[in-house]
Each structure stands twice: as structure tokens, then as C-alpha cells.
Amino acid sequence: MTKVFPNPATNTELPAGGGNALVLTVWRKSLLFNCKGFTVFDGKGNIVFRVDNYIAGNKAEIVLMDSTGKPLLTIRRKRLSLADNWLVYDGETVVNPRYSVKKHVSLLLNSKSLAHVSSESNNKKSVMYQIEGSYAQRCCVVYDQKKRRMAEIKRKEEVGGVAFGVDVFRLVVVEPEMDPAVAMSLVILLDQMFASSPGRP
After folding, report:
1. How far apart are CA 25 and CA 77, in angstroms?
2. Could you tell me which of 76, 79, 95 has the C-alpha nearest to residue 87?
3. Helices and strands, counts by H and E, the chain
4. What is the pTM of this model?
């Protein structure tokens, strides 16, 4: 059975050596009463990330925390933006965003692109990642500028014939250069952009 209580010191670092992917199980549920959010487990059942948003709280700001509640990243919707645009900051700060994520808008119905991730350093924007696939189907890939697969969102396999649905899925961090917290922030943002959209991709 999966553990629900976090261990005090959980290591969220990628395994050493090339070719080793970090596989996390994402549960689209907060463990706190009257909260919405996510609980993320490693392969041993330890909680590695949490998102606990009070239902009546600020929906334009989301904090990704480690298992002990330490803020890792703060995600804020960009104000006065016509598009679905978000800024991501280190810790609980809201100055000098680390990167921004913008929902891809296309008139083409067969476009696979969901969002673009750009660095925000030195007031110069440069594309870091592109996200393609279908969040509704929990089948997405995060590519870097060289079109390398950095992370993937996949459906969790059935166990003993029991399907998990879309609220429990896998986040696979493929490349060691991809920070698992950044990968999880992209899951949160895809959920914000597409989870409540009718006819969502």
C-alpha cells in the first residue's frame, strides 16, 4: 500500500548515471482537508512534492512544496495578459521570475503543442522547453531546444485489472538536467490550463 505520511528527509534527486529515469506517481489530490492540490510519491512510496491550495484561497498563486512543506517554487498567473501566461519563482519570492510558461494558441486543430517554457533571465526570453501531447489523456512530452525528451506524463498502468483514471498518473523525468521540481511545476500548469477546459487537449 502507498504511504501517505512523508518521511522527514526525502531525497528527490535523480539517480546517478546516464539512462536512469526518475519515475514519480502524481495523485491529483491534497492530503489536507478542504484543499485542492497534488501529492507526489517516489518509487518507495515517500512523498516528495505537495501542493495544498485552500478552496477559498488565491487561485492565481500556487506553491509547490517538498514533503516537509518547504516552498520550492511559486507559480503566479501573469496579470493583464490576454493569453494563459504564468510566471514561476524560486521559493516564496515573487521577484525575478525563473521562467515563464505560456499556453500555446493555434487555429490548427491538429496542433500537438500545448505550451512553451521560456527563461526569464536578464530580461531576455529564450525558449527552454516545448510541451506536446494531450494533458486530458495524460500523454505529454517535454522537449528541450534540441528536441530531446526531458520529461513525460503518462497514464499509470493498471494493477490487477484496476484502472487509476486521470487523477493518478506518472511523471517520468528522463534526463538528469531536468529538475524534478520544474517538471512537476509544468504538470501543475498544464492542469491549470487544460483540466477545466471543455474539449481540452
Report:
1. 26
2. 76
3. 1, 12
4. 0.84
